[in-house]
Specification:
Helix content is 47%, strand content 13%. By secondary structure, the chain is of the alpha/beta class. An eight-stranded parallel beta barrel has the order 1-2-3-4-5-6-7-8, surrounded by six helices. Strand 1, helix 1 and strand 2 form a beta-alpha-beta unit. The longest helix has 17 residues. It is globular, with a radius of gyration of 18 Å.
């Protein structure tokens, strides 16, 4: 297991539009010191569709150098092209990655057999641990539990899955079919506690940019049997979880981080700053959470 709290890190951009590697390193150090057991770079929250392969590798190297081996660094190596994903996976270790994350191929809408062959090809291209990532709302395809179970049985380095289908019954079936072979992580902060109840081990989080220690306390409280305390933390943070998706992720969390002193207010098109109404919702939630 990588740990309980893995942050899907935003990608800071400089005024000229290039990746701000120094600021990424500064943010990574902050996350590592605030209960992030692992950091995903070049994922959905990192605006992966707008990053070139070179930028992903440079970002990974900057983050790995900043955390100096104390925190896992997971490179978002998944694309909707198998050969491109294989190439990224082969280069991941050289830039300091300790694992890779592979999103389901988007836009192509492959069948389950196509998903199996895609993930199998990439897993065979690296000795690094692999985390699968199922997010049908973004990709248009749902990676089914039976396919994940087949992959984990056939490939020893497929170690985890980030599940963001929002379907708890599907999550429960996934945990049932892969028990003891695969670590299941929530891909939605608001579903972390319910998913723990059916066998998940943690979360790949957006909110951990802001409340990592509280998320860690919630997870540990549940695992230690203090379900009342875990529920209390979950309910306290629920308005913040919702506010961080008041506009398309990662726009709200980058805005929130900027308010807290990180240079993260820039986006790459087609993403853009959110409107005043969304600002108000986010600010209110952050005040209520004691962040502002």
């Amino acid at each position: 297991m990588i740990g309980h709290v893995i942050t899907a890190m935003v990608t800071p951009f400089a005024p000229g539009g290039e990746v701000a590697l120094h600021e990424a390193a500064r943010l990574a150090k902050h996350l590592a010191s605030h209960e992030s057991d692992g950091i995903v770079v070049g994922g959905t929250t990192g605006e992966a569709p707008t990053l070139e392969k070179r930028e992903k590798l440079e970002l990974c190297a900057a983050v790995a150098g900043a955390v100096a081996g104390g925190t896992g660094v997971i490179l978002g190596a998944g694309t909707n092209d198998t050969s491109s994903s294989v190439e990224l996976a082969r280069q991941a270790a050289s830039c300091g990655a300790t694992g890779i994350m592979l999103v389901t191929p988007y836009y192509n809408k492959p069948p389950q057999e196509g998903l199996y062959r895609h993930f199998a090809a990439v897993a065979q291209a690296t000795s690094l641990p692999v985390m699968l990532y199922n997010v049908p709302g973004r990709t248009g395809v749902n990676l089914l539990p039976a396919t994940v179970a087949r992959l984990s049985a056939d490939h020893d380095n497929i170690k985890a899955v980030k599940e963001a289908s929002g379907n708890l019954e599907q999550v429960a079936e996934l945990c049932r079919l892969t028990a003891g072979r695969l670590d299941v992580y929530s891909g939605d902060d608001g579903l972390t506690l319910p998913m723990l109840a059916v066998g998940a081990v943690g979360v790949v989080s957006v909110a951990s940019h802001l409340v990592g220690p509280r998320l860690k306390r919630m997870i540990l409280a549940f695992l230690e049997g203090d379900h009342v305390r875990a529920r209390k933390i979950h309910l306290e943070l629920l308005p913040l979880f919702r506010a961080l998706f008041v506009a398309t992720n990662p726009v709200p969390v980058k805005t929130a981080l900027n308010w807290l002193g990180f240079d993260t207010a820039r986006f790459r098109l087609p993403l853009c700053p959110m409107g005043q109404e969304s600002h108000d919702v986010l600010r209110s939630a952050m005040v209520a959470a004691g962040l502002l």
